[in-house]
Amino acid sequence: MSDKSYTFHLIANAHLDPVWLWDWREGLNEGVITCRTILNLMDEDQDLTFIRGESAIYRHIEEHDPDAFRRIVQYVEAGRWDVVGGTVIQPDTNLPSAETLARHFTHGQNYFISRFGAPVRAAWAADSFGHCAGLPEIMANAGIESIAFTRPFYETLPIAKPAFWWEAPSGKRILAYRPAAGWYGAGRVEMMVRLDSLLEKARQCDLHNVGVFYGLGNHGGGPSRRHLREIRQWAEQHPEIQVVHSGLHRFMDALRAEKVELPVHRGELNFTLRGCYSSAARFKFAYCKTENALASAERTDSLIRTALRQSPKKLTAPWDSLLFNSFHDILPGSSIERALDEQLEWLGGAMHEARRVELGALNALALHVDTQVAQPEGDLPAANAVLAWNPHPFPYRGPMEIEACLDYRMVDAYKGRPDEVPLRVLNPEGAPIPFQTVPTDNLLESDEWIWRRRIVMHTEIPAMGWGVYEFGVVEGAPCTPPLPLKTPGQIEMGAYRITAQVGDTGVQIFRNGKPLFDRDGLAAAVMDDPWGSWGASDELESKGLTDEKERWSISHVENIEHGPERETLWVRFAGKQSWMGLTFHVYRGSDAVYVSARLLWNERKARLKLVMPIGAGEAEYDVPGATVRRPPCGEVPGGRWVRVFGTAGPFGFASDSLYGFDCTQGDFRATITRATSYAYMAGTEGRRMDPVPDWRPALDCGEMKFRFLINPGDAQLPGLAQWLNQPVVSVVTPAKPGTLPRSGSFASLSPASLQMLALKRAEDGNGLIVRVRETTGQDASATLTWLNQTLDLGPVTANSIASWRLQSAPDGWTAQRTSIIEHATDEPESPNGNR
Fold first, then answer.
1. Is there a single domain that holds both residue 532 and residue 424?
2. Which of 272, 277, 458, 603 is the most buried (most CB within 10 A)?
3. pLDDT tens digits, 583-616
4. Strand, helix or coil at 738?
């Protein structure tokens, strides 16, 4: 290609980390400073153009510097300021849920439409640490046509041309561009070399349009006068090159118009900076729990309030909190300590609001449900009415725990006879059901102090529905004495037997008499990890970090519960300085082992892994908006579940907090945490940095809690992961008559291959939004049973995401296809109506 055919698009930007080596206050205010500086430079240089994304930055400027915001609007209208990205901030795009990434565009795009009159079409991921396979599906559904990114670099993920089609599992495509040389910005003295490098790369390709991303950045910045001077100098030296001040939209549109065949990339754009999948575990655990609590509470409130003809709560503020905290230096754990501490505080407000809204919705439902209990004789206490709620669009059949008071004071009649307290549990139909008494959360309970009881039982709750259970003291109710312990250090129920012995280095789990694990069983190993927050070089990370510092041994084993509904074994693994307690549960009728973990971590330069020797080979991972199958390739990001293909067949693992996994030397390993240093870069090519001073804190020292489960890796695994992360909710409620029955369902979704990502109030308040994802790779026809009406939503393409707006009409509810940003789409509308 002749040099005369090249157009160099100068795309000035100022990458701004709102949180990194500084806190959010400094970061957001730097957004104001940077934009004012750029505006002044644009006033001075009539050729300069600029791109800026992140609605959170624009909102902060609009609120705190309205004059600067007014000037931005003027330059947008003049075509010199290009609003890009479409998200609230630049999130990590491997770790958040699919709905969190979708909500970035819902909130971001609607803000940009309201302020600038049009949605963003070009996404901008300057510095995010790799990108999940489901991202092009989410972006295409949000009106995004193209994306420019930098990570991973070409050396990690070679693609034949800088521009390519990125194809989602559903077949949707967006145009992607990664600079052929350099990064998203340019240093103060880098401009001439950058332009020379890009020209050299351009001559090796058949693309006419070349993206030149430049500008100081990390703590804001942008183009400098020296940049502009050197650009003019270089252009004068290369009159054969058309050098234009451009924008991201203009550049991507020009690429799209080229008559050049582009490669197609299918799947994820990974991996880079792999240590971020498990750095700052304490923050990740809190983030994951908040994300799940908010999604579940929103569905619960939206459905219950609508069914009761009330207005669903507006949850914009807690969602904005969650979205900000998904930023690619917050959630990945690469920020300083005080910044992460403050982000934990921020998450706490979102979590509390989610819980408050959920309780309000359940109490509103309880006012309308028949929650009557049998009237006690004489002065005996009345039983508790417990309302249980299923937040998912498919029925729940499994264990549930309830804890409540038996009276307003201690039950004196049974002092010294705690096992003789006559308890009864009635299901919604009024029939007694079996249960098992288990330890309460308090330590006041004793032979003399009988006040509260905690039970576990098997329940069946309709899809997105409720059930009322009666639980309390009833004279004459049969008492089931505790079962005698069979074998210390062992529990057995259904298909599972679990054994542990002090001094061993692993827990053995048997299913139908066959061991799940090779060698010593489920183990805990501390790996040498002298690398910083971002991890080691990709070469080391991809080898799995196998330098084992310590293999923990079992120091304590105790049988905690032994009964007809559940058996529980507590096992403590201990090392020289840290320990971890694993509480194993097996339930009647459940083909899974549930584990609650409590870790006391006191290490430096170390990474803790759960080690499961299963002859691991390839594994299938739940990732945002998709599932991906990977061969053993080092530590990789995973979502809520992993299906590993071992020598004895599939093996399933799900957790409520863990993100980093690897299949190394036949072991499937889940990283729990890393004792690295805050905001510490470990160098390149595997080079270890000088020792970090002891007075510098290590990440995640202290106590942490998480949960996980294992199962045979069958079709139940994704559903079990959803229950683990968003469990059935129960509340003790007043006993009284009601117009709704003791059990019922407001909604359900079919077929089972459809996962409900969201049920929410529409952003404009006009109806509700329901969003689903097809998960099995097969086209489906979606049916929503909704408030005693059946809506045929229509076709959902394999592996795709689809959204509808539900609205109430005089003759019933209707559903209209919409987009993630809640605007009508060009896709065929779904048939609706009663059936």
1. no
2. 277
3. 999 999 999 999 999 999 999 999 999 999 999 9
4. coil
